[in-house]
Amino acid sequence: MTASIAIIGFGSITQTLLSALGESDDIRVSNIVVRPERIGTTGYRWRDACFVASIDELAPDVELVVEAAGQPALVQHAEKVVTSGRRLALVSSGALADDSFRTKVSSAATRNGSEVHVISGAIGALDALSTARAAGVQTVRYTGIKPTAAWRGTPAEDCVDLDKITEAVTFFTGSARDVAQRYPKNANVAATIALAGSGFDETRVSLVADPAVIHNCHIVESEGVLGAFRFETTAAPLSSNPRTSGSTVFSIVSFLRDRTNAIRLA
């Protein structure tokens, strides 16, 4: 049976995702949600998908909406998606550091018989974090290491001269909530770890610019009553967007196929 879905956004993640899905027999992209001024413009076309500007315009048979457009788009559309009774799968988990927004979306989903799933994105170890959390208090640390180019256009430029560093520099330490507020374009991994593990205020985060690396590196370390673990992922960035790991795209593909690599928020 073919599932009809919609995708919010038409940037590098969505375009790579559409290429990865190819001629899928069991997934049909019926709608792509973009800003109103983009509809009908050059390049904003994909097969027979209908580009729309709001959730109200989605095809009636759309049962799942995938967010791949960033935190502002998630904040704009999430509540509308779940209020319509459709399931929502998201990657911009940094927006969920806002407790009132997270509660509003999860409550609306519960009232309307919907579901909210946070896709794993660029990070693994979510099952281990969830298991450790169930057993009791745990200490969770996340270190995000990226090439200097990945930090351009972010507040990192106010902390370190990206053009002059010759070795790895840790330019930020704080909580997952702090990083979600200060580095929204780079916060999703930290936020997803916080949701799976010990929470936004308890999850400690370090961000590192390293001119010697070419891939994004994510390190998760946890200690608790069950013991300790360290999980390290080296992920090649998208060629079209060095801030985003290619694994983010394929975590969406995996979710669409088997629904396993995600955190159920509601």
Automatic annotation (TrEMBL):
Reactions the enzyme catalyzes: L-aspartate + NADP(+) + H2O = oxaloacetate + NH4(+) + NADPH + H(+); L-aspartate + NAD(+) + H2O = oxaloacetate + NH4(+) + NADH + H(+)
Catalytic EC class: oxidoreductase
Domain of life: Bacteria
Enzyme Commission code(s) on record: 1.4.1.21
Pathway where it operates: Cofactor biosynthesis; NAD(+) biosynthesis; iminoaspartate from L-aspartate (dehydrogenase route): step 1/1
Molecular function in Gene Ontology: aspartate dehydrogenase [NAD(P)+] activity; NAD binding; NADP binding; oxidoreductase activity, acting on the CH-NH2 group of donors, NAD or NADP as acceptor
Keyword Lipoprotein annotated: no
Residue ranges of domain Aspartate dehydrogenase in the record: 165-253
Pfam families named in the record: Asp_DH_C (PF01958), NAD_binding_3 (PF03447)
BP terms from Gene Ontology: NAD+ biosynthetic process
Gene3D superfamilies (alphabetical): Dihydrodipicolinate Reductase, domain 2 (3.30.360.10), NAD(P)-binding Rossmann-like Domain (3.40.50.720)
Domain Aspartate/homoserine dehydrogenase NAD-binding residue range list: 9-118
InterPro entries: Asp/hSer_DH_NAD-bd, Asp_DH, Asp_DH_prok, L-Asp_DH, NAD(P)-bd_dom_sf
UniProt-annotated catalytic positions: H218
Function field: Specifically catalyzes the NAD or NADP-dependent dehydrogenation of L-aspartate to iminoaspartate.
Additional remark text: The iminoaspartate product is unstable in aqueous solution and can decompose to oxaloacetate and ammonia.
Protein name as annotated: L-aspartate dehydrogenase
Organism: Nitratireductor pacificus pht-3B
